[in-house]
Design brief:
Radius of gyration: 14 Å
Structural class: mainly alpha
Oligomer: single chain
CATH superfamily: Globins
Shape: globular
Strand content: under 5%
């Protein structure tokens, strides 16, 4: 991830924050459209789940220029997600839903460079979560 990509993710996320409730709703709608079986992994209040998602993304985005500070938390998140029933292949679906949501929220601001930056960031975070989950299972 380059410094330019970090800047693009941070600046684009600032534009999503004012519509974070709607973004969360769009995200989960798209996620369940892409894989209806994932709905069974969510037992609680989806509005609260959406707020948690937005807070988690905000925390990760804020720490992009010092990722080492959040790696332990991201690893713990990956391990916890195994207990929720999350499998490696679900990360691709989540990534697709996230990119789609950002495209909806940013409109013309969702340029090829912004998409590439978010893809890179998501790849790093999802990879960290999956690795931690695999280590915990071993």
């Amino acid at each position: 991830m380059t410094p330019e990509q970090t800047m693009l993710v941070k600046s684009s996320w600032e534009k999503v924050l004012p519509i974070s409730d709607k973004a969360a709703e769009l995200f989960y709608g798209r996620l369940f459209e892409l894989d209806p079986d994932l709905k069974s992994l969510f037992k609680g209040d989806m509005e609260e789940q959406g707020r948690k998602l937005m807070r988690m993304i905000s925390t990760a985005v804020a720490a992009l220029d010092r990722l080492e500070a959040i790696v332990p938390a991201v690893q713990q998140l990956g391990v916890r997600h195994v207990g929720y029933g999350v499998k490696d292949e679900h990360y691709d679906t989540v990534g697709a839903a996230l990119l789609w949501t950002l495209q909806q929220g940013l409109g013309e601001g969702f340029t090829a460079d912004v998409k590439e930056a978010w893809t890179s960031v998501y790849g790093v975070l999802a990879g960290t979560m999956k690795s931690a989950a695999a280590e915990a299972a071993a």
